[in-house]
Specification:
The protein has 115 residues and is mainly α. The chain has a domain at 18-92. It has 5 helices and 2 strands. The chain has helices at residues 2-30, 33-38, 44-60, 66-90, 96-99; strands spanning 107-108, 111-112. β1 (107-108) and β2 form a beta hairpin. It is elongated. InterPro entries: DUF2516.
Length: 115
């Protein structure tokens, strides 16, 4: 019974890492191609290939093996290094409901409240 619990926890961790890699892949796919060049990072195709392979490896192989660990490292590098640089070059997350447009706290929908 203890072994079943251990493998069910590993299964949950494996799914969580796969979702994390999938998030990074989708995020890399929606970023503009020229933002990678402006942020002085590798190009968009490179990151899509690396993150796509990482997601597939995390789904197909056990979390205990070596390949998912390499995939996790690639996803972490993208998330903590490349993604913030792309957001800074692009001017934030582009607005929207949750992202904020990078404006001041006194900005209203049509400009600043205090003029």
């Amino acid at each position: 019974m203890l072994v079943q619990g251990f493998f069910s926890i590993l299964g949950l961790v494996s799914w969580a890492l796969f979702v994390f890699a999938l998030f990074a892949f989708v995020d890399a796919a929606i970023r503009r191609k020229d933002a990678y060049r402006a942020a002085d990072k590798n190009n968009k195709v490179f990151w899509l290939i690396i993150l796509g392979i990482a997601a597939v490896v995390m789904k197909l192989f056990s979390i205990i093996s070596f390949l998912p660990i390499l995939g996790l490292i690639a996803v972490i590098v993208y998330t903590v290094d490349v993604r913030p640089a792309l957001k800074q070059v692009s001017g934030g997350s582009g607005g929207g409901r949750w992202g904020g447009g990078g404006g001041s706290s006194s900005d209203g929908p049509y400009g600043p409240y205090n003029r």
